[in-house]
Structure formats: C-alpha cells, structure tokens
Amino acid sequence: MIDTGLVQHDGQRHAGRAGANDQDFGGFGQHFSLHLSTIVDFLDEAIAFVNDRWHIASMTETQPKKPSKSDRTRAQILEAARLLFAERGYDGASIRDVAAHASIDPAMVIRYFRNKDELFARAAVVDLQLPALRVIDRNAIGEKLIRRFLEIWEGPASGPGMAILLRSATSNEFAAEKLRDVFGNQVRPVIAAVADPADAGRRAGLVSSQLLGLAMCRYLLRLPPVVALSHDEIIQNVGPTLQRYAVGEA
After folding, report:
1. How far apart are CA 132 and CA 246, in angstroms?
2. Considering the domain boundaries, does residue 128 fall inside one?
3. Of 100, 123, 146, which closes a domain?
4. Residue ranges making up the domain that contains 110
C-alpha cells in the first residue's frame, strides 16, 4: 500500500521547493533588471561623453586659431618695415623709424627681429612664382614672362618685396645680394629649363635686365611715358624682346 501521508509530505516538499525556486528566480530577475538598467545608464553617459569630446575636437579643428598678441605685434612690425623699406630703401629706414610707424618701443623690434638685417630680410621676401616655361608653347614664352611680371607688380596678390629690394640694392650690398639670390635661385632655373644650360646664365641675365629696367622706370622712378603705357602696350613691345632673350637668337 502507498503511504498517503508520505506522498502528501513529498508533494508539499516539492511544492515548497517550486515556490522557493520561483522566489529565487524572481529575485534574480529583479536583480538582473537593476544591473541591466545601470549598464544602460553607464553606456548612455559614455556615449554622451564621447560625442561631447568629438564635438569639441571638431570645433577646435574647424575654427581658425586666433593670433596671439605676440603674432599681432610681429605682423605690425613687418607691415611698418615693408612700407618704409619700399619707400626709403634699406639705408633710409632705421629701427627707430619702423618702431615709430608701428607705435611701439624700438626695443620690441630688436626683441622680435634681433637686428636691422634680419628685419629687412623678413620684410623683403620675394617669391616670383614664375611659370614653368617647359610646358607652354615655346613661341609664347616672352608673352608669358611679361604677363607674370605685371601680375607681380600690379596684380591683386602683389607684394612690396621686389620694390624693397630694387630700391635698396643700388646703395646697399646686403640688399643687392638678396636680389642676386632671386636671380640665381628663381630666374635662372626657369630659363635653363627651356634654353641651353650652358647659355642659361647669359639669357637669364638679359631677361632680368629688361624686367628690372622696366620696373625701375615704371614703379620707382615713375617716368611719365612708361607709367602711361597700358598692359597691352607693354606686352606688345616687351614680350618679343623677352622671347628673343629667353629662347631666340640673342
């Protein structure tokens, strides 16, 4: 016979275990839900932090950096130096003149540029950006050179560098050496690319003599008949001469 008491007792015991298991599972589920909620909150905060840092970094990269007071002072000195050197030449503009024009103490000029030679060298930087003559029509070289000359002196991106050197070179050896550097490092290589390398120096010298003479008469001495010439007149009259000097029978 089956002991009904034992069966009843076992049933109660199993039922008790099931209830306990249900309670344990319910507690685990509640505990797991709390942990999951914490993890989600943490991830949300981490993502927000990363997005904020990325946004700040993007703004830093896209927004131009404001010039410092030191940068502004340096630019102010250079602007004054370029103006005075272009008007008066190396010998006609002193450190005190530059400082007075920039409305600063002369000691500040020395602090940023050490001496007059360094200031002059920085103010008289020249990059002619001459065209690559090798890749253009050989018959148009003279015209290309004179057009570039007019851009250098009268174009929207023209600077005072050549005027500073040309005005100063006749009386100051330091300026003259700077002008010779422009010839040797910028003019001669361009001519050598289209002419006999052995004859490039002579041809580049002839081209330079024509262009420097024109610059002296038109921009420094300001001879009225030369100043009155239109661009077309200059191109028509000077272009063929440059063509002959560069690649013709010169």
Report:
1. 13
2. no
3. 123
4. 69-123
Six-digit token string for 47: 């993502």
Number of structural domains, the chain? 3
Q: Name the one residue in this structure whose structure tokens are 């507690």.
A: 27
Q: Has this prediction a pTM greater than 0.70?
A: no
92 pLDDT higher than 60: yes
Task: Provide the token pair at 245.
Answer: 């000097």
Looking at residue 222, which CATH number applies to its domain? 1.10.357
Structural contact between residues 172 and 183, judged by C-beta atoms closer than 8 angstroms: no
Say how far apart CA 146 and CA 148 lie, in whole Å: 5
Task: Note whether 148 and 225 are same-domain residues.
Answer: yes
3-state SS, residue 241: helix
Q: Compute the CA torsion angle 136, 137, 141, 145 (nearest 10 deg).
A: -40
Tell me the DSSP string of 115-153: SHHHHHHHHT--------GGGS-GGGHHHHHHHHHHHHH
pLDDT tens digits, one per residue of 30-44: 554 545 555 555 555
CB atoms within 10 A of CB 158: 13
Residue whose structure tokens are 């599972």: 25
